[in-house]
Amino acid sequence: MTEELLLTGNLQEASKKAIQWLINRKPIKNLIDWGISFSLWPPHLTTSCCGTEFGAFAAARFDAERFGVLPFSSARQTNLLVIEGTLTRKMARAAKIVYDQMPEPKWVIAMGACSLEGGIFWNSYNTVLPSEIGIPVDIYAPGCPTRPEALARAIITLQKRIRSNQTVKAKSA
Ligand code: SF4
């Protein structure tokens, strides 16, 4: 069904409504989603030893930038949180603050057995899972550690989901 555009209110409100309507048209939305899928910027946040694999993924051999993934220092300019392995209670607080600072739309990849189900720290008193602190995970990349190739696969899968509007947030919206 085609969504109708009804322009009411003052000029500013009407123009905002018109821009939003135009952005949500399929060809333009597809183009925006395509652009976003190749502009995934994760913040620098290393939670555990899987972080070294993420480092390898970002370095010359695997070259994360060719996937459009550019690690960035400010959380407010990022859109992809990568939970790199174990999340201790202390780091969980930092991860949640970073996640909350990131603007929408944003996505989460959890890598390593530790972020899936606890891994070798599954019964530890001081580790938590991303879901336990309100961080919704879009893609899980298993392994201990998760190899850079597996992370590349997770990125490609996320990109496909963004382009087809099938991420966690798209489903819950
Ligand atoms: S999955 Fe393995 S490599 Fe990754 S954080 Fe856990 S123990 Fe470390």
From TrEMBL:
Pfam families: Oxidored_q6. Its EC number is 1.6.99.3. Residues 49-157 form the NADH:ubiquinone oxidoreductase-like 20kDa subunit domain. Keywords: 4Fe-4S, Iron, Iron-sulfur, Metal-binding, NAD, Oxidoreductase, Translocase, Transport. One of its GO terms (cellular component) is respiratory chain complex I. The keyword Metal-binding applies. GO terms for molecular function: 4 iron, 4 sulfur cluster binding; metal ion binding; NADH dehydrogenase (ubiquinone) activity; oxidoreductase activity; quinone binding. InterPro entries: NADH_UbQ_OxRdtase-like_20kDa, NADH_UQ_OxRdtase_20Kd_su. GO terms for biological process: aerobic respiration; electron transport coupled proton transport. It comes from the Archaea. Gene3D superfamilies: 3.40.50.12280. PANTHER family: NADH DEHYDROGENASE (PTHR11995), NADH DEHYDROGENASE [UBIQUINONE] IRON-SULFUR PROTEIN 7, MITOCHONDRIAL (PTHR11995:SF14). Belongs to the complex I 20 kDa subunit family. This is NADH-quinone oxidoreductase subunit B. The gene is nuoB.
